[in-house]
Prior knowledge:
The longest helix has 17 residues, at about 195-210. The chain is flat. Helix 2 packs antiparallel against helix 3 and helix 4 packs across helix 5 (about 195-210). Among the domains are: about 70-150, Alpha-Beta Plaits (2-Layer Sandwich), CATH 3.30.70.1380; about 155-210, no CATH class. It starts with 18 loop residues before the first helix and ends with a helix. The protein has helices at about 20-30, 85-95, 125-135, 180-190, 195-210; strands at about 40-45, 55-65, 70-80, 100-110, 115-120, 145-150, 155-160, 165-170, 175-180. Strand 8 (about 165-170) and strand 9 form a beta hairpin. By secondary structure, the chain is of the alpha+beta class.
Amino acid sequence: MLRGAPIYAGDLxxxxxxxxxxxxxxxxxxxxxxxxxxxxxxxxxxxxxxDFPAANCVRAMLGRREEEGDTVCQLxxxxxxxxxxxLSFAQERLWEAGALDVYTVPIGMKKSRPGVxxxxxxREEDAGKLAEAILRHTTTLGVRRMSLARxxxxxxxxxxxxxxxxxxxxxxxxxxxxxxxxxxxIARREGLTLREVQEAAMEEWRAVRIxx
Length: 212
């Protein structure tokens, strides 16, 4: 029942997680991790009947994060024997597999050989399949993995109408930005420049925002 959930051993002998508790965890929890800094709004306690040297109780807290952020996984490897075409193909496959970001950095390796660092940011639950993709589509023999905390700006999406069709604009407290793929598709179809489509989308977005 706890397949896929992180577990650890303790000093107490006996059942500490009941089948009911395991079922609740696997049903409701979408991501495991350390408790974030938050403002607690509600606290609940549950007491067990068995006698242990420590308190036999569980505490659950409901609260709001103090800041917008989450934890992501970074995968990376060093490459010095891969062709540019193969590297480009590997990056495409990582995007297709759900990577949040993929990038390369020129590096110097042993014996002064020029190389490239391939890095991939992803959600923790996608790290396994993306590491396998790196191993499969590149020449590396190993992948480094680390967890990173990141802070996010609040964002939302609004669809605006341009003379050539709808475009989604990503909104943040500092402004907005048209989604590239949608703007590029319109530019190709209508024979326009990307800038023309983006400016039309932003003009409509600004007009929509100031309407009462």
